Amino acid sequence: MLTASTLPRRFRSSVDWDWLRAAPESTREKISHRERKRLRDWLLQSAMSAVSHNESFRQSHHYYTTRATNLLKKMQSLTVIACKLLRIIFMIFKKGIRFDPEKMMRDIIYPTLQEAVA
Length: 118
What we know:
Elements: H1 9-12, H2 37-53, H3 55-66, H4 74-95, H5 101-106, H6 113-117
Helix pairs in contact: 2-3, 2-4, 3-4
């Protein structure tokens, strides 16, 4: 792991080590602004397109924006979907599998009617 002690002495004071620390719980639904702006924009645009053209992503977006606990705003929901889309694309390239919307929907635990009544 990269630490201050592993760097040569001349670089130790000039490196900002804040980026190595874990993000607090309240900021984990954000995409860091340290990343490339165009890449971030492309990811959000692809998430918007996925929500508008794919039924499973539309259901996920609806669930994230209307659930009772931990309600997300629309852009936060699109950020979560963009990260999910990126993970799906990575696994398609890595393992050569096809996209399965049913498997994606199994990741979300929907409350049953009995839990809603109780």
